[in-house]
Amino acid sequence: MSSRLRWESEGRDWPQREASHFVDTPGMTWRVVRAGAGPMLLLLHGTGSSAHSWAGAISELSRYFTVIAPDLPGHAFTRGRPRGGLSLRAIIQALSELVASAEAIPVMVVGHSAGAAIAVEYARQLDPDFPVIGFNPALMPFPGIAARLFPAMAKLLFVNPFAPRIFARMARVPGETERFLKRATGSHIPDESVRCYRTLLGNSRHCEGALEMMANWDLPALAAALPTVRNPVLLVHSRQDGAIPLEQVREAAALLPRGTLVVEEGHGHLAHEENPAMAVQHIIAFARLQGVLRQEETAI
Is residue 11 part of a domain? Predict the structure, then answer.
């Protein structure tokens, strides 16, 4: 499967299809889920995923917010390429253009994993009082020798034209996506989410986009910038996360001048998919704490 994912075929029974829209910005055509009414809440998925990862939370969140959840550049059903590729800076610029096209300003941004890194940097550039939530956030370099090897390996895999095809072929082996998700994340997610990941990871163009994002991710620079982030930031991490060690998130929270860490038990890296109600509860409570929602709007 070397062609891109097609909305008219692979997307015909995709989560939130009825709330999906395609939005053009310079060099990009985004697939965006837009639902609800009220202040705008921006939701960002992690590397290798898509906006489907927020499906379980969007129905409840849309009671209080206008929820905007895009497929990030290089991922799923979004097309095109930001100027500058899939670096953090280029993705944030492209995301800013997408938000500008919505003719509204978000009141809060929520990201998962690498999406949390995008969220933190986006907020830092936007307004020092703009609140951020990062679920299972990827904000720190990998420990030890992995800090040097992982970016290099990602770059090597990205420039190898066969690597995305090999990954996609493996994902299409019956049961392999389920085994990979369990090994890599420690999460037990709903069957609908597994089905989406099977489609995503079985597509070589999607895998190529995920690899390029990892190859261009400069986590040491991001970590060095954390003390300059004046925004209120809530980090929600899972003790059983198989992808990101808790100690890394503790370190990130300590570097953030207005950072708070909450540790959840019994979930893995995809905690917001395992337990959407938990994610919604944190988002609503933080929105209330930051004055994004009035008290009478948050009785969930």
Answer: no
Within a domain: 197: yes
In a domain, 156, yes or no: yes
pLDDT in tens, 82-102: 998 999 999 999 999 999 998
Half-sphere exposure of 118 (CA within 13 A, CB side): 29
Angstrom distance (rounded) from CA 67 to CA 58: 7
Q: Which residues of 198-236 are buried (b: 16+ CB within 10 A; e: fewer)?
A: bbbbbbbbbbbbbbbbbbbbebeebbeebeebebbbbbb
Residue 226 lies in a domain: yes
Under 8 Å between Cβ of 249 and 143: no
Burial (CB < 10 A; 0-12, 13-18, 19+), residue 294, is exposed
Whole-model pTM: value is 0.91
Total count of residues recorded for the chain: 300
Could you tell me if 122 and 91 are in contact, meaning their C-beta atoms sit under 8 angstroms apart?
no
Task: State which residues form the domain around 106.
Answer: 17-297
Question: What percent of the chain has a predicted confidence (pLDDT) above 90?
Answer: 69
The CATH number for 173's domain is 3.40.50.1820
**Range list of H helices, 82-162:** 88-101, 114-126, 146-159
Task: Give the E-state strand segments of the chain in sequence order.
Answer: 20-25, 28-36, 40-44, 66-70, 79-80, 106-112, 132-135, 233-238, 259-264
